[in-house]
Automatic annotation (TrEMBL):
This is ferroxidase. Its main location: mitochondrion. GO terms for molecular function: 2 iron, 2 sulfur cluster binding; ferric iron binding; ferrous iron binding; ferroxidase activity; iron chaperone activity. NCBIfam families: FeS_CyaY (TIGR03421), mito_frataxin (TIGR03422). Belongs to the frataxin family. InterPro entries: Frataxin (IPR017789), Frataxin/CyaY (IPR002908), Frataxin/CyaY_sf (IPR036524), Frataxin_CS (IPR020895).
Amino acid sequence: MFSILRNPLVRQASSIRSRFYSAAATDEASRRFHEVADIRMQTLLDDFDAIGEKCDAPGFDVVYSSGVLTFNTGIAGTYVINKQPPNKQIWLSSPISGPKRFDHLNGNWIDSKKTDKLEELLETELKTIFKGIDVTITK
């Protein structure tokens, strides 16, 4: 008797079917990630531009291109914030706190160690860098 589990055609059809369903779920999760990450990146770009309008730090520059936001404070170094679609994360490289990875949980970008919110961390660090300037990171 030929076992249905050993039949290569049954296994192959089964894996095709499961890939079809998981691809749809993955596409939706990917679409949702890009939606919320793009909103966050645009908001950060706007917030950093607002800081630039209030300060006169030489070398201050903000650039957003291809999912990578580069923010040269002109004083304390450069922040690099980028989307990581395969991991569904936002990665931060900070001249103050170093590298961190953030997951989108319950409407917030929380670092992978569950200790910091992206917006709160940035606001705290930037207030330290830009003393005397009203620094607000939109939540």
